[in-house]
Specification:
about 260 residues, alpha/beta, Rossmann fold, 8 helices, 7 strands, about 45% helix
């Protein structure tokens, strides 16, 4: 198993990507600590991971709060003895699809502040323990907005590019201590819409363009090299690989899981 005897903390563990990652990490042998703000969603994700054979603990934690995240991570380290993997899968609903003239400053800054703050908070908390133990993996999640252009992408583009820059810089800082940092960049995932904020967000974006969301998603898929969009399992399987010792030489990487919406 890829992650046998690994201890993984997943922030946003009750969300679509966090829950999918939990199931795959569980199958691959990891001990899981899931955090989020919705206890029912955490319990559902934990149940699915336990069905895959994992030892799973859950905690309601605000991933924007350094004090709450520090306290939880310290508790995990005390219980499990170490932290091998820290995945931030926290998501924020935000405005997309509008031109700059119709976008407020608050709407523009909401994803920028949110994503950059939570990833700083969770990486800082995990890195203290990873540095002390001489290794670990920090995983972040971006979007193709970091490199795409077009109307309505301003906030998304700024947060995604900022998060990718943060991940690269963090890899350089923590590398000498044996800590790897990998950023994963998936595209829109249609199978996440029912359980994620993206359902409402993409629905509003499609409506702003005057088309049904199914047609909007079909248009996105048609712009990829593979002619399809990624699915949650694509992302979760890659996260498990990136967190494993098989990817031991990978750090500072931005993994392109956009199905060819972007070609590196």
């Amino acid at each position: 198993m890829l992650l046998e005897n690994k201890v993984a903390v997943i922030h946003g563990g009750g969300g679509s990507i966090g829950g999918a990652a939990a199931r795959v990490f569980a199958r691959e042998g990891a001990r899981l600590f899931l955090t989020g703000r919705s206890l029912p969603r955490l319990e559902a994700a934990a149940s699915a991971a336990r069905a895959a054979g994992a030892d799973v603990s859950i905690a309601v934690v605000d991933a924007m709060s350094q004090a709450e995240v520090d306290r939880h991570v310290d508790e995990v380290a005390e219980i499990a003895g170490r932290i091998d993997i820290a995945l931030n899968a926290v998501g924020f609903d935000h405005v997309q699809g509008l031109p700059i003239a119709e976008t407020s400053l608050d709407d523009y800054l909401h994803p920028v502040d949110g994503y950059l703050q939570t990833n700083f908070v969770t990486a800082k908390a995990a890195s203290r323990h990873m540095i002390a133990q001489g290794g670990g993996v920090i995983l972040t999640i971006s979007t193709p907005g970091a490199r795409l252009t077009g109307r309505g992408l301003l906030g998304n583009a700024a947060q995604s590019a900022g998060l990718e820059g943060f991940s690269r810089a963090l890899a350089g800082e923590l590398g000498p201590d044996g800590v790897r940092v990998v950023c994963v960049r998936p595209h829109a995932m249609s199978d996440a819409l029912a359980t994620s904020y993206t359902g409402d967000m993409f629905g509003r974006t499609a409506a702003a363009g005057g088309i049904p969301i199914d047609e909007w998603l079909t248009g996105l898929a048609g712009m990829t090299v593979l002619g399809r969009l990624p699915v949650l399992d694509d992302v979760a399987e890659y996260l498990a690989f990136a967190a494993s010792d098989r990817a031991g030489s990978m750090t500072g990487a931005i993994a392109n899981l956009s199905a060819g919406a972007l070609v590196d």
